[in-house]
Amino acid sequence: MASTPSLNVDVAIETWPLASPFVISRGAKTQAHVVVVTTTDANGLAGRGECVPYARYGETPEGVARAIANWQPSHNRETLLTALPAGAARNAVDCALWDLAAKRSGKSVADHLNLSPVANAVTALTVSLDTPDAMATAAKEARAHRVLKLKLGGNTDDDIKRMQAVRAARADARLLGDANEGWGVKDLSLLLQTAADLGFETIEQPLPANHDAPLADCARPIAVCADESHHTAGDLESLVGKYDAVNIKLDKAGGLTAAHHALQEARMRGFEIMIGSMVATSLAVAPAYLLACHARWLDLDGPLLMAEDRANGFLFDNGKMHAPEHGLWGTP
Length: 332
Fold this sequence. Notes:
The chain is an alpha/beta fold. Helix content is 32%, strand content 25%.
């Protein structure tokens, strides 16, 4: 625990079982490992924030917890932007400070940022990477969800079959695809055209983040969305001409403060917006949900993937998200 006379910061590593394995091109997981920060002031008011350390970026729960414990507490969220690098640790602290600010001021975080909460926003439901038949079955079983996000990234023939099978199973659904850096340049045009022909709305991160230059010279019949290639507002200049949209995640941006800035910059540059999150509980999703008013797509189904969520979490009804009014995050 790090502390000052006016602010205490507690850090806890938690493990949350998933309802079923979550599979992408880089591997599978059956549990969500999260780090929770609680900031408490001298009057006993407390704010919480949750982050998900991501191995793709060299993060571990233990490393993130150490970074937070070594941080010198400050009430100024702007100085936090330089005190900790973009990533999971800064996200948890930033969100905890926002939550604390709401408790202190009697004013919601949405009001602080002049954001209009969206009622009954619709999130995509993730269909994990599997065989075409298994993914089609999963899509059928998710009949209540009108937006599905398919995890792709196998070989070309199998990915084409996956997209075809899910579309055949769910002619009514809005479909998004996410290759998680798993496609290659050779078949990129074929895969993007297939997705477009099947009525997909976007494909996320088809090429590895450090090898995505060919996107600038490739016909894009479908919106291509940057995920691993986009972390903060500083990345946006390099994405112009290669991507049509960006996925903004607080764990990559390093908190709600930085994510809100990235959102504003992305909109100014003409990018379409997806708001996403890692596999996490409602406590991590709540800050990201505030940005829904400016997004074309939401990928905030983390709580749905859990075997059990936090108390006072989001409620889901036929794919619609109902944000809790009090008791979770961001309200007085």
